[in-house]
Amino acid sequence: MKNKLFSLASLLLMAGALVFLSGCDKDDPEPENIPEVITKVELTFSAVGAADIVVTATDPDGEGPQEYALSGPVNLVKNTNYGLSVDLINEFQPLTSTERFITLEVLEEADEHLFFYGWTGNLFSDPAGNGNIDNRADVVNYLDEDDGGLPLGILTDWTTANATATGTLRIVLKHQPGIKSATSTANDGESDLDVTFNVNVN
Amino acid sequence: MIFYLCNPVAKSVRYLFTLAFGFSSLLSLAQNARCTLTLSGVVYDNENQPLAGATVVVLPNGPGTTTNNRGRFELKNFCEGSYQIEVRFVGFGSYRQEIRLGQNTQLTVSLEPDETALQEVVVEDHAPHVEATSTFNRLSGHELQETMGKPLGEALRQLAGVNTIQTGPAIFKPVIHGLHSNRVLILNNGIRQEGQNWGTEHAPEVDPFIASNLVVIKDAAAIKYGSDALGGVVLVNPAELPRDPGLGGQLHLIGASNNGSLITSGFVEGGSKKWKGLGWRAQGSIKKAGDSRAQEYVLSNTGFEEQSFSLAAAYHKANRGIDVFVSHFNTNIGILRGSATSNAEDLANAMEREPPQQTMPFTYDIKPPRQDVQHTLFKLNAHQTAGKNDYRLQYGFQLNVRSEFDQRRGSLVEIPALGFRLFTHTLDLEWQRQHHARFQSNWGINVMHQVNEKIDGTQTIPFIPNFTHNAIGLFALEKFTLTHWTVEAGLRADLRNYDVAGFDFQNQLYRSEIHFQNISGTVSAQRIVGKRGSFTSSLSSAWRPANLAELYSIGTHQSAAAIEYGLLLDEETTQVVPFENSGVKPEQALKWVSGFTYTGNRLTIDVAAYLNYIRHFIYLRPRGVTNSLRGVYPYFRYTQTNATFAGADLSVGYKLSERWSMDGKLSYLRARDVEENDFLIFIPANRADISIRYESGKKGVVSWYAESGVRWIAMQTRAPRVITPRQLIDATAQGIDLIAQDDSNFDFMAAPAGVQLLHAQVGVTWQLKNAKLEARLAGENLTNESYREYTNRMRYYANETGRNFILGLHFSF
Fold first, then answer.
1. By the CB < 8 Å criterion, does A21 face chain B?
2. B320 and B180 inside one domain
3. Chain A contacts of B511, Cβ < 8 Å?
4. Does residue A1 sit within a domain?
5. pLDDT for B469-523, tens place per residue?
6. Any idea what the Cα angle at residue A38 is, between residues A35 and A44, rounded to 5°?
7. A32 found inside a domain
């Protein structure tokens, strides 16, 4: 009886010891898919009878400290009507993966997302002004909408000014789950994208 | 037995086990020494009437017995040696005496009635492992009861020198002398609490209802408990298990008005009639709270729910015993919805907006961002007293599962953005030897084996890597007791090894091995002054290896709007560099604490002053601003510097009369980065508490008390400069990097103004024949102040909670 207590304790400790030392496997952990990262933004300006104008902003280090890089300025022709489409790409995903194309996800969740556009330098005659980042009521010509009839902004329509101009075009994508409305602003929700391009109108 | 050995530490672990089994055979041998002495006696009350049913127990771990109806008791099978005897009975002050047994001994004890004991439910205190020469504070009795239902960190804030770092109204981490997270060690029922402890939003996974007292040790080298305790140690001590036949229990029901919380907790305990010395307890708590409310608005998504239970059993014979403890803790905590921000622009918007974005009507629903945490603990402890020797063997297993859910696109919202499972095994062997009355040795070994693995499928780059961690520590503590002096000296050696596998910012696998070794020491002394006073002073060193978040973290934190980079990430390439080439050193602290306590009839004073110098102190230093495709982000790198934390704690109690008493507390702290000559961020502001209390004394079966007090929280004037996110963005737009220009510490928002908070409470106790019922009504922030607290990370977004009324019913039998 005297030693039973400690025999029991020793036994349990031995059992513990087995567990203790069995945990040293050297298997590598499985890498995760990282579908939310945007490493590349591609803008395509299309005009009737002209080649598409494509510019990109890339940030290959994702959360790394390196700044994103622009492929160059957007050179538009004055007094021309352009359709603009925005493509968000996750280059960490394989070419065949649908998760590479974040624009598709935004489209699926159109009722929670809204692209805002803001520009400087009187680049456009239509929409005139400086865009809806500072004031939601300002005009941006959205060509798409969500199921509720609210704009989305993957596709937009632009007419350049009738004079040479230089400025910037800033595009902000807001995630506004539950709060997207006809009046929700660029200050509402969380930012999924906030990128600025240089634009020349010649 | 064949073990698969992966590294040198595992080898030493095996060696230790051999040692451990040898050790237990040794114990069996020791038992054969002749232990035939008997201690017997009589217990009387203050009117010299024999007291039946009084408990007589040998501290700290038994054996024990109760007096018969003639007040007599008898304890057998003692070996020669010194024993600490305690005699106690409900309603009487307990009697403690050190007795030297060389022959059969008779004892006569008279107990004095304890006026205060009957006024509130007081669970028997049981605080093992606190050395006389330590500077410590304890929360127990009515003070502990008045914190019932609050998280551990918030409860500990009642003690001078302890603050909290908060993430909203439900997540509290204790801060001891300005240090928190990995620099504070929590011993939950004797086991070193191991969870994901690196973030300020990671609260300790402990239900304070299991404790009968909470102890905060403020010396740095609480050498027995292991490394890391640069700030101090928190002991969560459950009450002793019953040793005598019978059944007892408690039930608590607590409701609060501010967040509509309902908390119920209770336990049943008993001792076996058949198996003398066998005691058990089953305990459980359920908590549910909705959104908290600031003065003017609801703090949306700050509710929480928590379920926990524990089972304990112990079997004690004359000089040995074994106990088993199992607990499970499960919580789901919401984080203020309006704090979910992405880039600096979002942060600027959130800071300029009040009430916060997405403020909704009150609800109990909890949505992302939220945390889901489970913690399971198993503990087995065996102890044995043989003559002058005391042996203790303890095994602990912990499983901590943490999932953090964020606002994510699409179906990802259902998937945790961060998820880890942490398995921890600990083995502690301890040997205490009372060489003679004045000289005591305490030697021990602590072994730890830990595995951290990410929960697969989070679809994010894991914030910290997977790792296997093995640690071994050896300590020796020698204590000399002279007439007025107690002197203690200790030494500890530690060896730690991490095998790491994680993913860098390009989602590429890296592997590394890290080794740490260190020696720390302590010297402390206590001087008894007169009959009521004592001085303590200690000088101790402590160390802490950089944790895995500090080494490898990459990315944005829940609601921090900043990118963090670990110490091992190259400044240029952000690639992981090998530990050997990094120049990273463990933190080294040298802490001096001196205290004085005085316990008079009317006046009690507890004052302590400290100076903690930390070499290679690790903190997040702002380094620059980056323009990512998601917008402008400030980024921070973990950096090492030298820092000092100096301050003083004061607690004073004064009995104005039989019925009236006053109580005051003061916590004062100055912290500084001495290398960069800069202030540190999130250092708790100075504060003071004063309260006055009336106790009715016992009138028949009813007694009552009333208390009111004020808490002052000063403005933190020793805070870094301010750069608002708006300033950062505007400067960045003009091509200026404000942080790269001057990389001294900064805060996004100025420290909030000081505040006075008024609280009050009344309580009534009905002492029934075999049971006690207490009702308590308390009001907090009675003037409904609108304020923010410097050490609450939610202060960027919202005010603190407003007025709160708490109604508690406590029943014990």
1. yes
2. no
3. 28
4. no
5. 999 999 999 989 888 888 999 999 999 999 999 998 888 899 999 999 999 999 9
6. 125
7. no
Instruction: Examine the pLDDT at B416 and tell me if it is beyond 80.
Output: yes
Continuous segment of H or E residues that includes residue A21: helix A4-22
Residues B195 and B316 in one domain: no
Range of the domain at B72: 33-110
- Cα(B689)–Cα(B708) distance, rounded to whole angstroms? 11
CB B6 to CB A26 under 8 A? yes
Q: Does residue A95 form part of some domain? A: yes
Contact B501 A29 (CB under 8 A): yes
Q: Does A69 touch chain B (CB under 8 A)?
A: no
ipTM of the complex: 0.84
Asked if the Cβ–Cβ distance from B410 to A179 is below 8 Å, we say: no
Determine the average pLDDT of the residues in B373-402.
94
Mind giving me the DSSP string for A36-68? T---EEEEEEE-TTSPPEEEEEE-TTTTSSPPP
Q: What is the model's pTM?
A: 0.84
pLDDT score at A33: 81
The domain that holds B225 is classified in CATH as 2.170.130.10
Q: Binning pLDDT at 50, 70 and 90, where does residue A94 land?
A: confident
Nearest by Cα to B563 from A66, A186, A102, A33: A66
Q: Stretch B313-324: mean pLDDT, rounded?
A: 89
Residue B610 is assigned to a structural domain of this protein: yes
Q: What distance in Å separates the CA atoms of residue B573 and residue B462, rounded to the nearest whole number?
A: 19
- Domains: count for chain A: 1
Are both B430 and B572 inside the same structural domain?
Answer: yes
Q: Per the structure block, which two tokens stand in for B181?
A: 């997270």
> Is A23 part of a structural domain of the chain?
no
Mean pLDDT within B565-573: 88
| Inter-chain touch A194–B393, beta carbons under 8 Å | no
CB within 8 Å: A3 and B10: no
Give the nearest partner residue to A21 out of B10, B408, B461, using CB atoms: B10
Q: pLDDT (tens digit, 9 = 90+) per residue, B6-25?
A: 444 444 454 444 444 444 44
Shortest alpha-carbon distance between residue A188 and chain B (Å): 7
